[in-house]
């Protein structure tokens, strides 16, 4: 049995070149500090000064790991092996990020915590059969490691114990490379190694189509300011899944995105083994009071959520997110910080 007295705490990973604070509540990155071109450090993730606001639900998924299934499941329904499943509709008319109490809203167990040159922390969580409507017990592990002076790796693993189930985890940090308190991210430039997106209906659920980005406001195959074409995007901004189909590979991971902030020259290169990435420009962030009293408004952070495709469980032409007993789900993200 899991220890019922698990308490939310904050842990630090620090190698002298970067400092990361992570809580076992939702496996949330609460702060991540890296230097700019002048050696000035800044915290580049949106969040809160203490664990309490996260626990009270003040954050729109700041910094957390979402699951059992990230993103939207249409109408909160799917069938698997002939069995129909119904999920909570927490973002009407769909189920979003695992439901009312997804992996972002539970206290994970700390399985291992290592300091030193390559500090790391491993969180464990056991998701029960029927939790938020999903089938079968699933053992989940997430390990954050500082693998080099300014690189952080996240390894996520999930193993279904007794029933097949959809599994798709995502890390939902909101990045602002100028510093979390510095306003909007529209001046950041980004390159995304995805030549297609999965276009969405009016409820932000993919239609099933795979659409080339060439000649559209979604084309970031070459570096471009986030704000350059954002007003041409239907809705409030970008909130779309990119098909990661054209990035070079390194150690089994594909180059997903390169985010760059002009005033500080900070750069984040993201590598992953996931098939897709939700590019989300914080469209629904609205006056959230965060660290040091900073007020986070619309577009004050950008999310680069590598993932299985949204609603893949209901789209046979999308890569399958079903994991069966005896198999394991593996998802790695590598965050490389630099200046240029």
For the secondary structure, the number of strands is 30
Poorly predicted segments: none
Largest sheet, in brief, is:
10 strands, antiparallel
Overall outline:
globular
Beta-strand level of the residues, as a percent range? 35-45%
N-C termini distance: 49 Å
Give the overall average pLDDT. 97
Percent helix range = under 10%
Structural class: mainly beta
Q: Supply Rg.
A: 19 Å
DSSP summary: helix tally: 1
Overview of this protein structure:
It is a single chain. This protein is mainly β and 340 residues long. Helices cover 1% and strands 40% of the residues. The protein contains 1 helix and 30 strands. Strands 10, 11, 12, 13, 17, 20, 22, 23, 24 and 30 form a 10-stranded antiparallel beta sheet that branches. A hairpin with a 4-residue loop joins strand 1 and strand 2. The chain is globular and about 60 Å long.
Describe this structure in a few short sentences:
This protein has 1 helix and 30 strands. With 340 residues, it is mainly beta.
